[in-house]
Amino acid sequence: MIRNSLTGKQKSFLRSLGMQLEPVIPVGKDGVTPTVVQAAQEVIKKRELIKVRVHQNCMMTPKEAIEMLAERADVNLVQIIGRNGLLFKRNFEKPKIELPG
Predict the structure, then answer these.
(1) I need a surface site. Which of 11, 33, 34, 54 has the fewest CB within 10 A?
(2) What is the distance in angstroms between the CA of the first residue and the CA of the last residue of the chain?
(3) How confident is the model at residue 1 (pLDDT cuts 50, 70, 90)?
Protein backbone atom coordinates (compact mmCIF):
# COMPACT_ATOMS: atom_id res chain seq x y z
CA MET A 1 0.00 0.00 0.00
CA ILE A 2 1.28 3.45 -0.93
CA ARG A 3 1.92 5.68 2.05
CA ASN A 4 -0.21 8.79 1.94
CA SER A 5 0.60 10.72 5.08
CA LEU A 6 0.88 14.10 3.33
CA THR A 7 -1.76 16.81 3.46
CA GLY A 8 -2.86 18.68 0.35
CA LYS A 9 -0.88 21.74 1.42
CA GLN A 10 2.27 19.65 1.87
CA LYS A 11 1.81 17.96 -1.52
CA SER A 12 1.37 21.35 -3.17
CA PHE A 13 4.59 22.59 -1.52
CA LEU A 14 6.50 19.49 -2.66
CA ARG A 15 5.14 19.80 -6.21
CA SER A 16 6.48 23.36 -6.37
CA LEU A 17 9.93 22.12 -5.26
CA GLY A 18 9.75 19.23 -7.73
CA MET A 19 9.35 21.56 -10.71
CA GLN A 20 13.06 22.39 -10.51
CA LEU A 21 14.27 18.79 -10.21
CA GLU A 22 15.64 16.62 -12.99
CA PRO A 23 14.71 12.91 -13.03
CA VAL A 24 17.38 10.92 -11.17
CA ILE A 25 15.88 7.42 -11.27
CA PRO A 26 15.10 5.95 -14.70
CA VAL A 27 12.71 3.01 -15.03
CA GLY A 28 13.63 1.13 -18.20
CA LYS A 29 12.32 -1.83 -20.18
CA ASP A 30 12.80 -4.24 -17.26
CA GLY A 31 10.38 -2.20 -15.14
CA VAL A 32 10.71 -1.83 -11.39
CA THR A 33 13.60 -4.16 -10.55
CA PRO A 34 15.16 -4.60 -7.09
CA THR A 35 18.13 -2.54 -8.35
CA VAL A 36 15.83 0.38 -9.23
CA VAL A 37 14.12 0.14 -5.84
CA GLN A 38 17.45 0.08 -4.00
CA ALA A 39 18.76 3.06 -6.00
CA ALA A 40 15.58 5.02 -5.24
CA GLN A 41 15.86 4.27 -1.51
CA GLU A 42 19.49 5.40 -1.41
CA VAL A 43 18.89 8.63 -3.32
CA ILE A 44 15.71 9.53 -1.45
CA LYS A 45 17.46 9.07 1.89
CA LYS A 46 19.93 11.79 0.87
CA ARG A 47 17.57 14.14 -0.97
CA GLU A 48 14.12 13.40 0.53
CA LEU A 49 12.41 14.46 -2.74
CA ILE A 50 13.21 12.82 -6.08
CA LYS A 51 11.82 12.77 -9.58
CA VAL A 52 11.47 9.47 -11.43
CA ARG A 53 11.11 8.98 -15.19
CA VAL A 54 9.58 5.93 -16.89
CA HIS A 55 11.08 5.35 -20.34
CA GLN A 56 8.89 4.61 -23.34
CA ASN A 57 10.29 1.09 -23.71
CA CYS A 58 8.97 0.08 -20.26
CA MET A 59 6.31 -2.63 -20.54
CA MET A 60 4.25 -1.10 -17.70
CA THR A 61 2.28 2.12 -17.89
CA PRO A 62 4.01 5.05 -16.18
CA LYS A 63 1.30 5.14 -13.49
CA GLU A 64 1.72 1.44 -12.69
CA ALA A 65 5.52 1.64 -12.62
CA ILE A 66 5.69 4.74 -10.40
CA GLU A 67 3.05 3.42 -8.00
CA MET A 68 4.89 0.09 -7.75
CA LEU A 69 8.19 1.86 -7.11
CA ALA A 70 6.62 4.02 -4.39
CA GLU A 71 5.12 0.95 -2.73
CA ARG A 72 8.28 -1.16 -2.87
CA ALA A 73 10.55 1.68 -1.74
CA ASP A 74 8.09 2.61 1.05
CA VAL A 75 7.84 6.29 0.09
CA ASN A 76 5.08 8.86 -0.41
CA LEU A 77 3.85 9.35 -3.96
CA VAL A 78 3.40 13.10 -4.43
CA GLN A 79 2.31 13.23 -8.07
CA ILE A 80 2.45 11.63 -11.50
CA ILE A 81 2.56 13.76 -14.62
CA GLY A 82 3.03 12.00 -17.94
CA ARG A 83 6.05 9.72 -17.59
CA ASN A 84 7.43 11.51 -14.52
CA GLY A 85 6.67 10.89 -10.87
CA LEU A 86 7.59 12.74 -7.69
CA LEU A 87 8.46 10.70 -4.59
CA PHE A 88 9.07 11.93 -1.03
CA LYS A 89 10.24 10.39 2.21
CA ARG A 90 11.28 12.44 5.22
CA ASN A 91 14.76 11.78 6.61
CA PHE A 92 14.28 12.16 10.36
CA GLU A 93 18.03 12.05 11.07
CA LYS A 94 19.02 14.87 8.68
CA PRO A 95 15.90 16.64 7.39
CA LYS A 96 16.49 18.87 4.37
CA ILE A 97 12.93 19.91 3.54
CA GLU A 98 10.75 21.67 6.09
CA LEU A 99 7.12 20.82 5.31
CA PRO A 100 4.36 23.33 6.02
CA GLY A 101 2.00 22.33 8.84
Answers:
(1) 34
(2) 24
(3) very low
18: helix, coil or strand?
helix
Average pLDDT over residues 68-95: 94
Of the candidates 84, 82, 66, 52, the one whose C-alpha atom is nearest the C-alpha of residue 2 is 66
Radius of gyration of the chain (CA): 13
Q: Using pLDDT thresholds of 50, 70 and 90, give the confidence band for residue 101.
A: confident
> 3-class SS at 80?
strand
Output the DSSP codes for 30-73.
Answer: T-S-HHHHHHHHHHHHHHSEEEEEE-TT-SS-HHHHHHHHHHHH
